[in-house]
Each structure stands twice: as structure tokens, then as C-alpha cells.
Please model this.
Amino acid sequence: MSEQIHIFDTTLRDGEQVPGCQLNTVEKVAIARQLELLGVDIIEAGFPISSPGDFRSVVEISKAVSEPVICALTRAVQKDIDVAAESLQYAKRKRIHTGIGVSDYHIKYKFNATHEQIIERAVAAVKYARKYVDDVEFYAEDAGRADNAYLARVVEAAIAAGATVVNIPDTTGYCLPEVYGAKIRYLTEHVANIDRAIISCHCHNDLGMATANTIAGIQNGARQVEVTMNGIGERAGNTSLEEVAMILKTHQLPYHTRIDSQKIYMLSMMVSKMMHMPVQPNKAIVGRNAFAHSSGIHQDGVLKNRENYEIIAPQDVGIPESSIILTARSGKAALRHHLQRLDYQVDDRELKAVYERFLVMADGKKMIGDEDLIELMEGIQRDKPIEIQHVQVVCGQPIHAVATVELSYRGEAIRESATGNGPVNAIIRAIDRIVGVPVELEEFLVHSMAKGSEDEGKVHVKIKHAGRSYSGFGIDEDVVMGSVKAYVNALNKVGEVQRARVVVATA
Model:
């Protein structure tokens, strides 16, 4: 039978400790709501004693979120616990997270205390927290470097005092997976009352092993994992939520989570944007290269069968599709794929000629985009019945847009004017009058190529003629001109472009 792994998200607490990535209360509430929709079980909303802003954030998250447990962090200090309890007053389900360092480094250099004094302070903190809430999590800070026998004593005492969850952090990211897994196993075998609490993993990524250690912890008895979106957090970061969730799903291990994986990518982008912390391109699951293929061998394999080179479907994490990136390393299969996507139909002989030109272009650029392919094909396919000569449009309120368009149509310059409910609609009507082809505009999409008011826009249109659809693409700094180019690009692909002046249906 599959066992549930409880997802404890600390993006808003440990993740927010990244320098320069602080969030305000409104932003924290927005992320908390999305974490609830994602399916996390516990949200660590903050460290209330640390600042009035953190206190306020815990209060507002408690009001805004109902399904997950809301958790507040404290030190093993009564004042901390008092403030945490107050911040959780509106939470439907509440937890206080308290603890103390247990490694010899912390005991000697941080607390200047004895091993017995640390146990006494741990017990006192848990008992005091239980006066406020029934759900108390105890963290044994720097457990990764602590002696296992002593750690077991601390954990047993904390559970006896009322802890419902015991957190075993690899605070410095020091442990090897087999060492951390063995530590969790040791606790399951040597803590007499361990059946009264859930063991939690909280791993850091200082040596790049946070996710591996967390999975090792699960395999050895842990049933809660403490994670962050995008793996953000103190120093090198925390265990990545998306990595753990997809490892458990992909390997079909005897464990499951409540995570709705199709919401992962959207939340990843939201966290990245709000925290002004870009996701590294090669980041597993959510990096922009996670489902991108540029090698010709890989591209050919993916196009034949996605599973040749992808163990996760991009749609499973909320990414629409894989990216076949055109570079000088791309092969004919990738080029044909993109040409077909742009509605350019080429046979094998034509493809060979196009590919030779493509390689020349690709050698001069890092990547080939749609605008480059359009330029390439326009240079090869000389038979273009329609060419744009002149476009002028006047629009504003309250008057209707008026467009004047001059096209070279089969070598003849023809000018027409038309009105419309906007500049693009007016231009399309004018073009339709010139060409006289009965087409229906099925799709009209505008995409920004980057950012900013002076950015180029890519326009995609789809038209239908005689039961067949044709796609057209246009690139221009002026969205209106980009629209004209896209519409003409589509019309030039229609097999029977003719002068017959007929009634057309335009959207």
C-alpha cells in the first residue's frame, strides 16, 4: 500500500531568507494561496518574533488559507512561542515549530551548554508550545552532524514532552545520502516512542545533495519532507519541492503526495518573479532547458518518441510542450518539424536544399527562431503571389479605423481601402478585397519576443480556405505591421490564390 508523504513547504520562511528576495505580506498571501492549490500539507508561514512584518504575514496567511496546516517557527524560547501562538490565532489548523541545536558544534560554540542542558531546554520548549497547540514540531538543528545516540535521546525526550513531528535537519548540507538515510533508520530503530511522531527531513544543498538526502530519508522511515519551490533557501538552498514530487511520481515508489504536479511550473514562475530570483536554465523540472533539445540526435529521437529522451512529459508539470531548439547542431528532422509547424510543406529533395541554407544561417547565430525560418523560406520560395507594398491606417475614438493597403498581386500593384473595428481588422478587410480569396480567420495571436515597449512582437494567424487551415507568421516592432506580414504569409500558402472578387468571412 502507498504511504502518504506530507509536504511541508518552507518557501515563505527558509526560502525567503535568501538575500534580496524578501516578500511583503500581500505577496506571501498570494503564494500561500497557490501553495494550497498545489496541494501542500503544511505551510511554514514565517518566524513571527523576527519582525512585525513576519508576524503580520503569518496572521494574514492564517486568514487566507484553510486546507493546509499553518506553521510558525520559534527558537526554544518562551517569548518566541508566545508570539508564534498569537500569530496563529486565526489559523484553522495550526502548528508551532520549535527546537534547538544538537550537534557538538552548536552545543559548545552556539549555546555554551552541556548535552543534558540542551535536552532540558528542548523538553521545556515542547511542553510550553503544547499549552497553545496540539500539533508541535520539534527541530533538532544540525542533526546531520550530531551523534546518532545522543540525537536519539533528544528525539525521544521531545516526543515524550508532546512533539507530534520530529524534524531531523541536515542544516549544513553535510551528509551523504547513505549517511542521512542511516540516521533516519537509526531513529526508527532506537527511539522507543517513535511511533508517536512523524519523522521529517529538512535538508540543505551546500554539497548538492539535498534532494538525494531527502529521498534517502523517505526510504528509511521519514514521512514528512521540508522543501521550497525552486529549491531556494539559505546559502545554496533547500530541497526542491518539484524534484521530490516528481521523483516519487516518476519512479512509482510506494509513496505518494497530494501535489497537483500540473501546477508546478506556474507556481515556480510566480515565486521566481516575486522574489526577483531567476531559475537557473538547467534547473531540474522547471528550468527553461529542462525540456529543451538542441542536439540533432536527441531531437530526432524525441520527435520519433518523446520517451527516448524524456522521462517526464512536460505537460505533467504544467509546461505545454518540449522545445526543439534549432542550432547548428540540429538535424533535418528538427528543421522539418519547425517548418511544418510554420505550415511550410517541403519534400525530401527540397528539405535537403533548405537544410544546406539553414546550416549557413545557423553557423552565424546561436539559435534560429521563427523569424529566421520565415526569412529563410521567403528567400527560397520565390513564388509569392502577394507582396506588401504600402500600408496606411488611421484610427482612434470615436471614428472607425480606416486602412489603405497596396499589394503587388501576381505582379500587379493593386490598392484598396476598408474600414474596421480596429486597425488590424481594417487592414485584413482591405487585403481581402484585393485578393478575393474566401478565407476565414480562425486564430490571431500576438507574442512578445522579450520585454519592453520597444520590443518586437511575433504575430501568428491561422486562416481556413476550402476546408484546410494555413498558418502565417510575422515579426515586426509594429504589431500592426507584424499582423499584415502574418496574414499575407498565410495567404501566400493557399494553393488557389486568385483574383475572383467574392464575399469573404473574416473574424
Summary: Residues 92 and 281 are 38 Å apart (CA to CA). The longest helix spans residues 115-130. Residues 498-507 have pLDDT under 50 and may be disordered. DSSP finds 16 helices and 18 strands in the chain.
